[in-house]
Every structure is written in structure tokens, then in C-alpha cells.
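Action item from last meeting closed. Structure (810 res):
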């Protein structure tokens, strides 16, 4: 079976929620496509597909056939070592095979090569690497780090700005002329017939040049079987324009409405222009992240220091970072001592001390000393790249609450067209005509129907959820909070109960061996060092933090460890092995009971350790208890404040641990937790959460270890600490990069205010349409005012979402 691919495509030409629905539906028609989510705000399509059945080119073609486009980047390269036309052909052939390349034009005489590509799939660095693989060298004519997708979007915005300028140039004098004549501000000349012809001349470029995209969009949407906003605008403006023609030609008596048709298009165009600028602000957080990485790296090669582009850094390179410089890629410090500002990724303001053996993250700022480190992750594998990818995926996903808007949007435009038709028929045949030659029955019915078409706004409904999700996920990323999806963001806002794992979550997860009790008579032939050596020889195969504490103590005492055989891990209880020919069991009282080891004579020591909040680890050799080890883990500095934050949000806080009741109570008392689930085996944690859910609780599980993964997956929202294991992070729906426990409260609070904002947006979108469509139908709204209101409604929704950037989390 082939690997399933997940890719993101930048879409152009979408105006409203129905456009996004049309793109989504067309992509899903392709065989091999498992999932397609199209986000109107980010203008991205996230597609999951089988590359053996469907190629990316087919997906792009399907989108273009639906009447939309793909934002394309251009790379202008100067390729060296091209000898003849065969080289040029080979270069084109190899680059065309790269997924994401749209077209290649190579001139072997000049060496200049232009590559058009999809920037969300491919980068200019990837293109250069491919060229290098076949023996050529490519120099980029321009900036290899430029935001090519952003440039494509800017080009589209500039075109819209140009059309808006042309439209205003014709519409403003047309509107002033028409209104001045209607209010009697001009002389008798304004009522002469040639003035109507002048209005036609001014209105026609606006209708068919500036407004051409609405006609194109309307035709395409009808072909796709999903009428969108373009249909409403095209119908409304065309009705006013076409009605004016027989009046102009003298076939019927009445008033021309050329200014109405032109104003409709210009007001909608202005609204869309303001909307695109506002939408640009919703993605500022992700753009800031993209700009964090430095362009150059100081690498030590062949005994010398050389500055190279960061994309040329290889895994294993030794990199030197001086004070005040940014760290170019991820790595491990091999020399030096410094403090590193990681606030741009974690949201934590205090610099973190770094010395030999510590990990450093690309894009963070070296503050004081010089650091020499070995590169371990480069390119798309760095922490920054993974964070950007995760945020983009979250922004491209759909929150469940959005389904309401999607369902309504699917039938909204046909319903509005039907309402407009009914409005026209009622005003034309059921309502008495108004007196006066300038107010014909047909004109009045037509204008009211046009007002209904234009006041309706499907875009506000389509933007209500994705704009809020986009702003919130970007805000979260800048504060060290990563939401994996819109669904996780929404669910976190509904949490009622927070379950905190003890070790590594409430405590530092760096336990130390503090006490050694030798069992009288049994251990008279054994020293402390020998017991530690035997226990550590078994525990070195364990991945549990308590085992690490025993091994660390052995290293501290320079004890030489033996190699264990027949090693076994009994999850949640301990470990067993043979060491130097002796059968060794290291673990809890439960493990001793299961192996018939008598530990009752040491119960007083065990109780004493537990009262002090320490974990008692028993060591048995050849079936007899020989020692009790006391292991202590300190509480994180901000754990108490984190619990208080959660309580302030009205949440129930529970600590869950595999430790005994006495030790658990001692830790819980330090941080102010009153509800404890102790002696819970790793496999039982998920069952404990499930029972809470059965009682109606919406549960968040916070953990960092491998044994927390099932519970993180079972919880309504799994929250992992960035300092934890990869397995825990993969199982969680929210990741806190810094490992700061206060981030749990911040993540939930941000989700709560986001959910509130989404509900406000949806209320506005539905309220606006439910109230104003009837108002337009009964004749209280002029079409021009209706078009203006429609344009403003979108901007209102986006503006309300942008307020999330101002919300205080702490």
C-alpha cells in the first residue's frame, strides 16, 4: 500500500463560503482523495490523497476547471555548467518531475531558467538542491527567502486595487451627477436626454470591466452547481443596468439606474478590498514566525570559519554563534556557556542557560556568551519549521461549529434568489402602484428584489469561524501554545475538568535518589554502593524517570554497572532482570507481592518516605528484600499558580499518578490540589478519564510521558508539554512548547475566548441576514445601501476576530 500524502494548496479567486465549498466538492470528486478542507480565510486547501491514484497536477487541474486558481511562485535562476541544448532539456525534464513544479523554461545559451512552482509544496532551496544533484550549479537571481506565496497574493491584491481605482474613476462622477440631478441641484440641462447617454458611458466600463470577475464567478459557480455571492452581485447589478437600457432608448417611461448598478459593484469591490487587507492581518503571527530564522550560519570547516547560507548547513556541522546572534538550526552544545532567549518560540521571557550537552533551537537568540554546537536538525525538520507546519495545518482545518455555517451556506444563495423573486412578484402584482411617471410598478419591484439580492451576505457566515481560528492559532503559537486542529481549539473551550499527571507535569520529572535503607540482617554483607550498582544495572534499561534517578546516583558515585540479562518491564510496577548471576527485582510493593517477596518488616521505612512525599522503591535480590530506596521529585516553580489559574477559570482539577496515596497527597498539598487518583496504572489512566466522561465531564489530560499517551488520546483534549516525549506530543491535540504548566490555563482561556468570538461572529452573520433580508423585501432598503451593508458585514466579522490578538492570557 502506498503512503498517503497530506498537502496544502494556496487557492486564488475565492470570494465567499460557497466558493470554498465548490473547490472542496470538486477536489473530493477525484478518486484517491481521502480528505479535502478548504479554508476561505487562509485561502488554502488541505488535501489528503493517495499519490499512486491521484497526482498533484490532477488536483490543480480540477481546481482550475472549477474556475479558481493556484497561487504560483516564480524562481529566476542562473544555472552554470550547461553545455548544450541537451543539458537544457535534461534540466527541464528533471525539474518537471519535482512535485509542485508547474512549468520550467530553461535557456541553455544564457543559463537563465525560470521555474513556476507551488510555494506550499516546494521552495527555491529544494529546486536548487535538485539542480545540484544532476551536476549543475544554480544561483538565484533575487531573494531565495522571499515569501513567494505572499507575492502571488500581493499581485492579486494589486490587480483588485487597480480595478477599484478604475471603478471609482467612473463611478464617483456618475453618482454625483445622478444624485445632484435627482435632488434638483443642477439646471434644466441635467434632464436632457444626452445626460442619460453620458451615464451609460460612465457605467458600462464599471459593469463589464471592473465587474467582470462577478460574471466569471457566477458562471463558474453555476457550472459547479453551487451558486455563490458572485451570482447575487451579478444578478443585482445587471438587473439595474438592463432595466435602464429600455428607458434610455425611450421604449418605456421611467428613471435610469446606471448609478445604482455601478455603485453596487464598487461598494462590493471596496468591501472585498478592505476584507483582503483585514484577512492579511489574521496571518501576521505565522508570517512573524517565518521571518525568525537567520539567513546565514558561521560554520567551522577544515579548521576555518566560513559564513554560508543556512540551507547549506548539514547535519553534523559544527556551528559557532556569537553573542547577539540568532541560532540558525537545531543542535546540541559542544562548547561554551550562554543564556538563550527562546521567547519567540515558547512565550517565556526569561533567557534559558545553555552549556555542554544542552539542546538549542533554531531562530532563538544567543544573549551573552559564545556557543559552539553540532547541528542535529536542519531545513523542514527544525523545531521552527515543525511549529509553522503545525500552525498552518490547524489554520487549514475546520472547527466542528463551522458545520452549521457550511450547511446554511449550501442552500443560502438559492434561498435568497427565491426570496428576491417572490419579492419582485409581490411588489409587481400584489402591491398597488405608486403615483408618478418616474416611479413605475416594475422599477419599484425590481429595485426591492435587487436590494434583497445584495443585502444577503453568505461571506460573513463563511468567515465567522475560520478567521477566529486563524487569529487564535497564530496568537497561541506566539505564546508557545500549539493547537493541532480547529477541532482541538473548539473542544478546549468547553473543558470542565483538567487531569494533571504527577511526574514530569506537576513535578520537574527529574527525581533524585535521596535515601537508602538497608534491610537489617538481610543486607549485612552489602554496602550502599553495591545495592545502588545492582539496582542501576537493571534500571539502565528502563525509560522511567525514577529509574533514571538510580542510574544518575550510580554515575555520581563512579560505580561500574553490569549488563542485565532477561530484562523485563512490568508497566507501572517496576523492572526485573538477572545481574551478575543474581535475580533482581526493583519496583513497588505490588511487584514484590506478585513475586512473593516479603516486605512487611520494612513497612515503617516505606511509610516514613511516603509521608515526606517521596517514592519508595524496593530492591529484592534472589527473592529477598534487601533495601528501600527513597526517591524525591521537586514540584515545578509555577505549579501552584497554574492550578490556581485553572480554578479561576471555574475548572475542576484532579491529579492522577501511579504513586501511592501518601506520596501523592504530599505533592498535591504543595500545589493546592484536593482531588487525587493515586496508584493508577498507566493502562488504567485512560479508563479513569473515560469514567469521568461518562459522568458528563469534558476532560483535558495533561501529561508528558510515554505512559500518558493512551490517556492523552482518550481525553476530549490531550495537552502535552513540549519538554515531554515525542509519543506524548504526537498523542496530544495541544502542545505547550515551553513545558510551562501555566500554559495549560492560557491554552484553555484562549480557546474559551475564541469560542465566544466564533459565536459572536455567527450570531452577527445570522442576525444580519435574518433581520435585513425582510427589511429589504418590504422596500425599506435602497440597493446602494444594501450593497454597502453587505460589504461592511464581512469587515465586521474579521475585525471582531482580530480582537483576539488583544486578549490578555495571564
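Sequence:
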Amino acid at each position: 500500500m502506498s503512503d498517503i500524502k497530506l498537502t496544502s494548496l494556496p487557492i486564488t479567486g475565492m470570494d465567499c463560503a460557497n466558493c470554498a465549498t465548490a473547490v472542496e466538492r470538486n477536489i473530493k470528486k477525484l478518486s484517491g482523495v481521502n480528505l479535502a478542507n478548504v479554508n476561505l480565510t487562509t485561502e488554502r486547501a488541505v488535501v489528503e490523497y493517495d499519490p499512486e491514484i491521484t497526482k498533484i497536477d490532477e488536483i490543480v487541474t480540477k481546481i482550475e476547471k472549477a474556475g479558481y486558481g493556484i497561487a504560483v511562485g516564480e524562481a529566476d535562476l542562473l544555472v552554470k555548467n550547461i553545455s548544450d541544448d541537451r543539458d537544457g532539456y535534461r534540466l527541464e525534464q528533471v525539474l518537471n518531475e519535482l512535485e509542485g513544479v508547474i512549468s520550467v523554461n530553461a535557456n541553455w545559451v544564457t543559463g537563465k531558467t525560470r521555474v513556476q512552482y507551488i510555494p506550499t509544496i516546494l521552495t527555491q532551496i529544494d529546486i536548487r538542491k535538485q539542480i545540484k544533484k544532476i551536476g549543475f550549479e544554480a544561483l538565484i537571481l533575487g531573494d531565495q527567502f522571499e515569501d513567494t506565496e505572499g507575492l502571488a497574493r500581493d499581485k492579486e491584491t494589486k490587480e483588485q486595487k487597480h480595478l477599484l481605482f478604475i471603478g471609482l474613476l467612473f463611478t464617483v462622477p456618475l453618482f454625483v451627477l445622478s444624485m445632484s440631478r435627482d435632488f434638483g441641484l443642477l439646471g434644466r440641462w441635467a434632464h436632457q436626454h444626452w445626460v442619460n447617454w453620458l451615464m451609460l458611458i460612465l457605467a458600462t466600463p464599471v459593469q463589464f470591466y471592473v465587474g467582470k470577475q462577478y460574471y466569471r464567478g457566477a458562471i463558474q459557480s453555476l457550472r459547479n452547481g453551487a451558486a455563490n455571492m458572485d451570482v447575487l452581485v451579478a444578478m443585482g447589478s445587471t438587473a439595474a443596468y438592463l432595466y435602464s437600457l429600455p428607458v434610455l432608448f425611450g421604449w418605456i417611461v421611467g428613471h435610469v439606474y446606471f448609478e445604482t448598478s455601478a455603485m453596487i459593484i464598487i461598494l462590493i469591490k471596496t468591501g472585498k478590498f478592505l476584507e483582503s487587507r483585514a484577512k492579511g492581518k489574521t496571518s501576521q503571527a505565522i508570517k512573524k514566525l517565518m521571518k525568525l530564522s537567520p539567513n546565514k550560519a558561521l560554520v567551522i570547516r577544515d579548521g576555518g570559519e566560513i559564513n554560508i547560507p543556512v540551507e547549506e548547513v548539514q547535519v553534523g556541522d559544527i556551528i559557532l554563534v556569537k553573542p547577539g546572534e540568532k541560532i540558525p538550526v537545531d543542535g546540541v552544545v559542544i562548547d561554551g556557556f550562554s543564556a538563550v532567549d527562546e521567547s519567540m518560540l515558547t512565550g517565556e521571557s526569561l533567557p534559558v542557560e545553555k552549556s555542554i550537552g544542552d539542546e538549542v533551537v533554531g531562530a532563538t537568540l544567543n544573549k551573552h556568551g559564545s556557543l559552539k554546537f553540532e547541528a542535529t536538525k536542519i531545513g523542514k525538520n527544525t523545531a521552527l519549521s515543525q511549529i509553522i507546519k503545525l500552525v498552518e495545518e490547524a489554520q487549514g482545518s475546520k472547527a466542528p461549529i463551522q458545520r452549521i455555517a457550511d450547511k446554511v451556506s449550501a442552500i443560502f444563495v438559492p434561498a435568497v434568489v427565491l426570496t428576491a423573486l417572490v419579492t419582485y412578484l409581490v411588489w409587481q402584482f400584489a402591491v398597488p402602484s405608486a403615483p408618478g411617471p418616474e416611479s413605475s410598478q416594475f422599477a419599484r419591484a425590481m429595485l426591492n428584489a435587487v436590494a434583497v439580492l445584495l443585502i444577503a451576505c453568505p461571506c460573513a457566515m463563511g468567515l465567522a469561524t475560520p478567521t477566529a481560528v486563524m487569529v487564535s492559532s497564530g496568537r497561541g503559537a506566539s505564546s508557545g501554545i500549539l493547537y493541532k486542529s480547529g477541532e482541538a481549539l473548539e473542544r478546549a473551550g468547553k473543558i470542565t475538568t483538567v487531569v494533571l499527571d504527577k511526574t514530569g507535569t506537576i513535578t520537574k520529572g527529574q527525581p533524585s535518589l535521596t535515601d537508602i535503607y538497608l534491610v537489617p540482617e538481610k543486607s549485612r554483607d552489602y554496602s550502599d554502593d553495591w545495592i545502588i550498582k545492582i539496582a542501576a544495572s537493571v534500571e539502565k534499561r528502563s525509560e522511567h524517570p525514577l529509574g533514571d534517578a538510580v542510574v544518575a546516583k550510580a554515575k555520581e558515585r563512579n560505580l561500574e554497572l553490569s549488563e542485565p540479562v532477561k530484562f523485563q518491564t512490568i508497566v507501572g510496577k517496576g523492572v526485573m532482570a538477572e545481574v551478575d548471576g543474581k535475580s533482581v527485582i526493583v519496583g513497588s510493593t505490588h511487584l514484590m507481592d506478585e513475586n512473593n517477596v516479603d516486605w512487611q518488616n520494612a513497612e515503617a521505612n516505606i511509610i516514613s518516605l511516603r509521608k515526606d512525599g517521596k517514592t519508595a522503591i524496593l530492591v529484592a535480590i534472589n527473592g529477598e528484600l534487601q533495601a528501600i530506596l527513597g526517591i524525591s521529585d521537586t514540584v515545578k516553580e509555577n505549579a501552584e499558580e497554574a492550578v490556581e489559574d485553572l480554578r479561576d477559570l471555574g475548572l475542576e482539577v484532579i491529579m492522577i499518578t501511579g504513586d501511592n496515596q501518601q506520596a501523592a497527597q504530599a505533592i498535591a498539598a504543595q500545589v493546592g490540589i484536593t482531588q487525587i487518583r493515586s496508584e493508577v496504572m498507566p493502562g488504567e489512566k485512560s479508563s479513569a478519564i473515560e469514567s469521568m466522561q461518562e459522568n458528563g465531564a469534558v476532560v483535558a489530560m495533561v501529561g508528558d510521558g510515554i505512559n500518558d499517551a493512551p490517556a492523552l488520546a482518550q481525553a476530549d483534549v490531550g495537552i502535552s508539554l513540549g519538554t515531554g516525549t515525542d509519543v506524548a506530543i504526537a498523542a496530544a491535540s495541544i502542545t505547550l512548547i515551553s513545558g510551562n504548566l501555566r500554559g495549560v490555563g492560557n491554552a484553555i482561556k484562549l480557546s474559551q475566548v475564541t469560542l465566544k468570538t466564533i459565536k459572536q461572529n455567527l450570531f452577527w452573520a445570522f442576525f444580519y441576514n435574518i433581520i435585513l433580508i425582510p427589511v429589504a423585501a418590504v422596500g425599506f432598503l435602497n440597493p446602494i445601501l444594501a450593497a454597502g451593508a453587505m460589504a461592511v458585514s464581512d469587515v465586521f466579522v474579521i475585525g471582531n476576530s482580530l480582537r483576539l490578538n488583544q486578549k490578555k492570557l495571564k
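Note appended to the action item: The mean pLDDT is 82.
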